[in-house]
Design brief:
The protein is mostly helical. The protein has 7 helices and 3 strands, in the order ααααββαααβ.
């Protein structure tokens, strides 16, 4: 089950969007951004991790919070006017046990806040469509729950095959960033772009 926002007004909006999506599963919801206001961004800020690595602008969560009201108001204005441009993603390479490295993209803190705000909107819609057997990257769900569900299903079936499939370096391979940034949302979102650019720059960091 999705995490219900703390703010009363945001919680009401969230539930209203979710109920609308549930009642009209075959209708494209073409306008979502009007639900996002300063209070919505405050909730997104609250739910954004404050201890993450710094993005390309070097701004920490503590520094951003010093002018929080002003920063969120300006962010909202840029997001709604279409003037927002996501800054380059700072990319570092994390060592793996096999001696290789895994690329990790680190957005700026402000971009994380906006991503969270957009995710909250989309989550309210798409959580109504996901099947109960889906666990990946969903709020309130974990890998442990997925394994438990898998075990229960196998017990009910009296055994069977378990296949593990992984696409090697799908997001990290050169020239494939478009797969992450330009993925087309299902018809439920409609045609309205919420905030992401068609592609983002990457700033390599050597450590």
């Amino acid at each position: 089950m999705a995490e219900i926002p703390v703010s009363g007004n945001v919680s009401t909006k969230y539930k209203r969007i979710a109920e609308l999506a549930k009642q009209m599963p075959n209708v494209a919801l073409r306008s979502l951004s009007h639900h996002m206001n300063e209070e919505w961004l405050h909730e997104a800020y609250r739910r954004t991790r404050k201890d993450g690595a710094l993005g390309v602008d070097g701004t920490s969560a503590d520094e951003y919070a010093k002018e929080l009201e002003t920063n969120l108001r300006r962010l909202l204005d840029r997001a709604k006017s279409g003037a927002y441009r996501a800054p380059p993603v700072r990319r570092v390479h994390i060592p793996k046990s096999d001696g290789q490295t895994r690329p990790l993209g680190i957005p700026t803190f402000e971009d994380k806040v906006l991503q969270r705000a957009v995710a909250m909107l989309l989550e309210a819609v798409y959580e109504q469509d996901f099947k109960d057997c889906s666990f990946g990257f969903r709020p309130g769900r974990s890998a442990h729950q997925a394994l438990s569900k898998l075990r229960d299903t196998l017990m009910e079936m009296g055994g069977g095959w378990v296949l593990e499939v992984d696409v090697r370096k799908y997001f990290g391979a050169p020239g494939k960033a478009w797969r992450f940034q330009r993925v087309q949302f299902p018809h439920r979102q409609g045609a309205e772009p919420l905030h992401r650019e068609s592609s983002l720059g990457l700033m390599e960091v050597t450590t």
